[in-house]
Amino acid sequence: MKSSRTLGLVMIAPAAVMIILFFLMPVVLTAVFSMTNMTTATGISGGVYQIAPNSLIALKSAMPEIAAEMAEPRYTIDEAGLTAVEGLGMAPGIVAELRAKHTGEVFPARRDVERMIKDLADRPSTREVKQISEQFNRSVLNTRFDSREQLFSALDSLGFKLTPEQQEIVAKTTYTGWTWTTENFSRMASSPDMARVLFNTVLYVALVLTLFNVGYALLLAIWTHYMPPMPASIFRGIWLLPRITPVVIYVLLWKWLAWDSGFISILMGKFGYLPKNYLLDTAYNAWFFVVLINGFIGASMGMLVFSSAMKAIPKSQFYASEVDGASRWQQIRYIILPQMRWPILFVTCYQTLSLLASFNEILLATNGGPGNATEVWALAAYHTALRNYAGNLEYGLGAAMALVLVVIGVTLSLLYLRVFNYGTLVAKPLIED
Amino acid sequence: MAERSQPSANYRSWPVITALTIVSLPLLLMYVYLFLDTVTVKQADALLPSGLTLNHWRFLWQTTAGKANIWQVTLNTLLFSACTTSLVLIVSSMAGYVLSRLNVPARGFFLAGVMVLHAFPSVTLIIAIFIVLQMVGLYNSLIGVILVKAAIDLPLGIWLMKGFYDTVPWEIEMAGVVDGASRFRVWRSLVLPQVKPGIMALGLFSFLAGWGEFILPQVLAPGNQVQVLSVYLAGFLADDNNYDFNMFKAVGLFYLIPVLIAYALFNKYLMNIYGGGSKG
Question: Is A335 on the interface with B (CB under 8 A)?
């Protein structure tokens, strides 16, 4: 390794590969998927052609007669059917006559084919006529065709003569795979549900950010700043617990507190109130708990950042102010807060992004309920794409929703890089060969 | 937090301590009862326990029907966090050094990229990766989740390691280079030992992050064979038929103990990172 440049490239390669493969590529793919109408129903690999009942409904508006005909079974006297009839063990003359006189004929309805069979020389009984006709039933309904050619050769052999324009329409309505579309974005822009989710998200971020991540964190930092070291570190330790606790346990604890068999219910029961699920009974309660649950986690980061910033304030400023007779409130107002401007800005910026992206706690606590009251954008994207009640997962729409978050996140973080003077972060390396 | 003298001795601190105790009460209550409820019996409407029992810990020796075995799940969790941690440590200690000391093309771009990547919502990654894993048939395997989780932790890891390398005096490297060692050798034998606290901090952080991770395994590897503790516990929570808070709490405490031990032993390392901020 002669030059540091080669070594640098080699040493950074694993990080670059991992980030490109598992970070950038998914983001790019999200953009790609957001331009499709991919769902569980369309599958994620290529689709097949299938004349299903719902595609016939779609077809009816464009070509009513053809759609009606496709819905009915057709009867074709072909070799496969003849062989099957032979297997039924009837008089051999029946098959011979069918093969000789009727091979290749197509009957549009059961009535027609059965009249023809009845008129055969051997005169099959009514029961036999039904058995025989069933062997020639060649309905296109619900059969799968792997390609367009197969679909049209099947239709052709059943006597559907279609013009190229008609073929185009049939192919389009019967294709079950996903196609490219921009519909996801127009759906997002016009749906009232999305507006509601957007409102929830703004409310959620604003409430948690101001009340806890900044407000309460600042309060905690100031309180512990003025405390003897022992209780201060105890309280800091307590408020760090939510952050180190795995999210599933943390939410379990809140459920224990708020559920109908939980702590609050039992406590209120002592005063004669009926037990109820405080977490989910009204939208206001749900919001109250969602903000608390996320706020208690978020408060710790602000607390640590603010505490260390306060520790950096020279002690002499406090002593000097005390000599001048400043009250504690004046110390906070004129010494601490002015010097907290940058930490506060940093925490605000950083936590906005974190809150926009986080949805684990809400998913586990309320799952967006009651109704859709606490559904925020990230959770809605998760629900749309990966777990919804209808069972048809809309990958395309979910990806489009996720993409909105990516765009917001990147825009905001570029803005923040500007604010925090990115140039100083990438100062020149120390040694050059 | 190391020694900190009071900025002012003229004020009484008990009113503040009382206020802080009151607002901390929900947390205290939750964590105290988390422990208490796992070893005691309590009447349905009582607030205080009436006797001791180990019955809530029965999941340790008997497997609930339809659920995975707890030891298998614990092993999976351990494997998952250990692999994620090693991957993050190795990759980011190399990349951090490059970004701190070596001049590579697009260095500034890479650094900015790391900052921006950190802001990416994980829901994006989950949806796309879910679809891709389904396409290639790697769904429900631990390897996929490990790689994804490591990639998510990487930006923070690289940024952090870069910060630690920046504090190493360059005379150390200069001495090595003058003595004729290659830059790689200098990094491995001289610089790496200097950033041990950073490696320690990042390793712990990454291990705890992997240990607590829920949404990635839930979506990408929910099967019983590859289940991790968070998914296992969430499965209990979602099961409305036999709701047993005390047993859930026992599972929860079982899951939390390693975290608490790590936190108690190494919290001064961890502060560095939680201050710089993981998501949430």
Answer: no
